Amino acid sequence: MSRTIAIGADHRGLEAADKVAAMLGEQGDTVTLLATCAPGESCDYPDQAWRVGKAVSSGEAQFGILICGSAIGMSIAANKIPGVRAAVVHDELTADTSRSHNNSNVLCLSGDLLGHKLMQNIVKVWLNTPFEGGRHARRVDKIMAIERGESPLDS
Predict the structure, then answer these.
(1) Cα dihedral 123, 69, 9, 21 in deg (nearest 10)
(2) How many domains does the chain have?
(3) What's the CA gap between 53 and 58, in Å, rounded?
(4) Whether residue 116 lies in the annotated active site
(5) Calpha distance 152→57 (Å, rounded)
(6) Catalytic site residue from 11, 101, 116, 136
(7) pLDDT above 90 for 42
(8) Of 15, 67, 95, 105, which shows the fewest CB atoms inside 10 Å?
(9) Domain that holds residue 135
């Protein structure tokens, strides 16, 4: 099953993004590496988060992967885009939970703190874990209510 995945990285995640994109391409996924930094140049993570987040929210990509130094800035920026549920993930368990419980559609990874092998494992688990629905769907609906400026208490 081929998935469409948009990947973005700042200067601290560029090398990791290239490796993740190559791995996913070898698996048969359709990968678009969106306007990352040129090697040796600095760039701003909100720009990359915007590009990937918009690709996911518009349906151009099913999933997004963002890589910066800590993953925190990318997550904060991406979560400002309606329809994006970006999760900072640091191991296979949080990868699984972010998909199965939170239906995350953008994965945020730390280029500074995660080794390549762990990052590959995280990406595989995250992409292959389905959303469980059930009580978790109610909670995701409340997140979407907040996104619309509504109280989740009314959902």
Answers:
(1) -30
(2) 1
(3) 8
(4) no
(5) 21
(6) 101
(7) no
(8) 15
(9) 4-154
